[in-house]
Amino acid sequence: MTYKLDELAGEAGVAPRTVRYYVQRGLLPAPEFRGKDTSYGREHLARLRAIKALQQAHWPLEEIQARLAGAGLPEIERLASGAPPRAALAGCPGAEVACPPPARGGGERWERIPIADGVELHVRGDAPERSRRIALDIASRHSTLAPRGSR
Q1: CA dist 123 to 13, 35, 64, 83, Å?
Q2: How many CB atoms lie within 10 A of CB 122?
Q3: How far, in Å, CA of 134 to CA of 103, rounded?
Q4: Which of 36, 54, 85, 132 has the most crowded CB, counting CB atoms within 10 A?
Q5: What residues form DSSP beta bridges with 129?
């Protein structure tokens, strides 16, 4: 199946401007040109969905770009479905979503857990599993934020 820019953006739940930006940055391959129109395909949609899923797991765009650069379509589609990157799970036992990759430069990595507008818990990346579960329990009991995707 092929998509025009607006169709692709609608399917992926992003703005057309976002699609053009990701092409410019190299996160998405350039579309095919058919006459004066551009055409996007299955891989473009899968990449957009994978980018969105990784952003929701707090991955920075630079890391997403590096992760997707070497990935084939089956891995991209797996990520697009919300499955965590295989390599990312090694440092996050029991994680329901992929932990973001460690910050470059050797600094500590912290996970942000939003609870309400302007309120979030911070859990150090090397915190014991018990501490992580406490934070997630607090977040699930006290979160006033709408579920992802409903904003």
Answers
A1: 30, 52, 22, 22
A2: 10
A3: 24
A4: 54
A5: none
C-beta separation of 106 from 62 below 8 A: no
Residues 11 and 45 sit within 8 Å (Cβ to Cβ): yes
With a CB cutoff of 8 Å and minimum separation 6, the contacts of 94 are 129, 132, 133
Overall pTM > 0.70? no
Question: Cα Rg for the chain, rounded, in angstroms?
Answer: 17
Residue with tokens 């979030």: 120
Q: At what angle do helices 42-56 and 16-25 cross, to 10 degrees?
A: 90
- Tell me the two tokens of residue 114: 């939003």
Reported as a single tens digit per residue, the pLDDT across 41-82 is: 999 999 999 999 999 888 899 889 988 987 899 999 999 988
- Average pLDDT for residues 133-150, to the nearest whole number? 65
